[in-house]
Amino acid sequence: MGIGNIGLPGILLIAVVVLVLFGRGKISGLMGEVGKGITSFKKGINEGQQELEEEAADTAKDVTPETDKDKV
């Protein structure tokens, strides 16, 4: 038997023990913090993607070749 063989009764027992040890208020506060962290992470990823897309759009706009003014 390994840890990968827990099953539903084992998970329920672990959940009850954690609930008794920490209490409902602490667990709900912790889950709220985890949710905020996930939301912040997703927001950061979206901002990074938008920044990369804006950089790519800026470089795609400037396709005019540079001319040498001394040759003319």
From TrEMBL:
The chain crosses the membrane at residues 6-23. Keywords: Cell membrane, Membrane, Protein transport, Translocation, Transmembrane, Transmembrane helix, Transport. Residues 58-72 have a biased composition (Basic and acidic residues). The keyword Heme does not apply. InterPro entries: TatA/B/E, TatA/E. The Tat system comprises two distinct complexes: a TatABC complex, containing multiple copies of TatA, TatB and TatC subunits, and a separate TatA complex, containing only TatA subunits. Substrates initially bind to the TatABC complex, which probably triggers association of the separate TatA complex to form the active translocon. Belongs to the TatA/E family. Part of the twin-arginine translocation (Tat) system that transports large folded proteins containing a characteristic twin-arginine motif in their signal peptide across membranes. TatA could form the protein-conducting channel of the Tat system. This is Sec-independent protein translocase protein TatA. The lineage of its organism: Bacteria, Pseudomonadati, Pseudomonadota, Alphaproteobacteria, Rhodobacterales.
